[in-house]
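Predict structure. Input: Major facilitator superfamily (MFS) profile domain-containing protein, 227 residues.
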Amino acid sequence: MPICRSHRHATTNITSCIPPGIYIPNRKRAEPAQPNPRISEPQQSQPSQDEQPNEKDSVGARLQPVETGASYEPPPMKTLQRRLVVLSLCLTLFLCALDTTILATALPTIGKELHVSAREYAWIGSSYTLSTTAVTPVWAKVSDIVGRKVSMMTSTGLFMAGSLICALANSSGMLIGGRTVQGLGGGGCMVLITILIGDLFPLKDRAKYYGITGIVFGVAGAIGPVT
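Output follows.
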């Protein structure tokens, strides 16, 4: 049997120690598996034509101007037209504010004529104020939906209808109902007058017209008990 030689270097072939006539298959070193590109790399789905953003639409949306409340300027009006608008708004506000306090001194006389009880006294005076306060935010939202003109005409019509019911009242219940209808229209008129001033006049003139309407409201409230 052949004796293996001792080698100092680790690179010596091991087949030198194997006797002749013995076959050893040549085993190749296993190579690492290569990754499959079809499996390792996820496929990116292309967006469909409907999902792709339209460049023209996005650019057009950016170029469209957006009007804000501070930058809005109403169209100019002539001097006569402006005065007629302010006069009509002030007269409407005067009548609506006048009915708030007009019954303060007339309640004893009305109570004798219509045989009003002590419990109904309070409702005759407060029914107008209560309905006015309740519908104020409602009219503001309605005017944004149907328009200022339709809302103003409707509230004015309700106020006139309530005034007619009060004039023809022959009982305390009818008078309270008429005052309630008055308040439904009067609340709309008062809040819409404030909105219309902001819509019709530029920002630099709004303070002046708000001051005028405030004076009218105060004068009407002071004159109410006297009349």
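The domain at 79-223 is CATH 1.20.1250.20 (Growth Hormone; Chain: A;).
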